[in-house]
Amino acid sequence: MTVTMPSETAVNSFKNLIHLCNKNHILNIKRIANHATTLQYGPLGCHLKRNIFNEWFCSLLNNTDINLFPIEITNPRKRSFLLQRTSDKNSNNLLQDVIGNYFDIHTKFGCNLPFGLAVYGPCINKNLSSNKSSDTIELNMLNDLESWTRLSVTFFCPTKKSLNWFHHWSKQRYLWWRKYSSIPSKFSMSEVSKTQSNHQHLSLLHEYPWRKDQLETITLHDNKVFEELWEKYHIDNEIGTVSQDLMPSVITCETELDLAVMAYLSNSFSVKRRDGENKNVFHLHYKLAPYKVSLAVEETDTENLKKLKDVISHLTKELKQTGVDIIPESDLKSNETIKTTFERCDEMGIPYIIVLNENSLQTGIAGLRSRDTTLQL
């Protein structure tokens, strides 16, 4: 078997992205004990991770066509990270975790098929590599994460319509990834294949600068697998015979929240030529951006700076009250040029900057600068 080593360009692309994320307090990746790695999220990274989770969660629960119920699994499970798994080795652990919820929802809510569960919770890596150095950034560091957050959809449907629902979820999840993407063409879908367990399976993929990796797996489970879990659940819980008509087909959509963070950071990152220089920019979608707006001051007069500080304090409170995430500005950075402020905010992925100057004090009108167009109104 021939092992293909990653190119120097691929390794450097990964290192540069991690370096820029670390510089801007988004995230960093480090090796810890037992050769495992951990993603350490900074303030901006925590906001980004929260925003991605909220969009995933709300897109499912606010679906008007399908009933989905949230399930939080708080006890960490030992699992294989998505990048370590192949299409013919999908585990049935998720089904074991949630099969009891199927009966609870069916009986307590009187919910008929089809319906589903939006399941999320922590996982611990059971397949860690060994003999890894602790002082270098490597492409396979993502494979060795000590823990992560699993995001899953478990969907129960009538067997006769299971294939239609499988294609429905494949399309919906594919469109969801592309919706928040700066470069939608970087997301793709694999062909449908049959696994050794007779599941129908496909992967949603993202093309990073260093390689193409799977982001999400969508599986239509073979009914025999669910029949075994069904019978085991009845025996363990001393439940009498249940009509086979109640036994559904099961579709699962599984991804990792930390992979989603890396995918959207990579997808949104670009180097732009501005004012004769190369500038780093994160073109994060407005709904994913850690902060939606920042404030900048185009003024050097000390007296005006004091007055503008009061304006900034008022604007910050007003925007926060309306639910707009605005980056806190404890210092007006009077020694920082407006150009430097723009570059700093672009590197943090902030879509808009409110620009204040002497005219703002006289007219009450502020400027607005766009990250993506660099136009200032």
Q: How many helices?
A: 9
The overall pLDDT, averaged over residues, is: 82
| Largest sheet: number of strands, sense, barrel closure | 9 strands, mixed
Q: Report helical residue fraction.
A: 25-40%
**What is the succession of H and E elements?**
HEEHEEHEEHEEEEHEHEEEHHEHE
Structural class label: alpha+beta
Q: What is the CA-CA span between the terminal residues? A: 59 Å
Number of strands: 16
Q: What characteristic shape results from the CA principal axes?
A: elongated
Share of residues in strands: 25-35%
Rg, please?
24 Å
Identify low-pLDDT runs. 1-5
InterPro entries: aa-tRNA-synth_II/BPL/LPL, Anticodon-bd, Anticodon-bd_dom_sf, Gly-tRNA_synthase/POLG2
Protein name: Anticodon-binding domain-containing protein
Domain Anticodon-binding: 306-375
GO cellular component, one term: mitochondrion
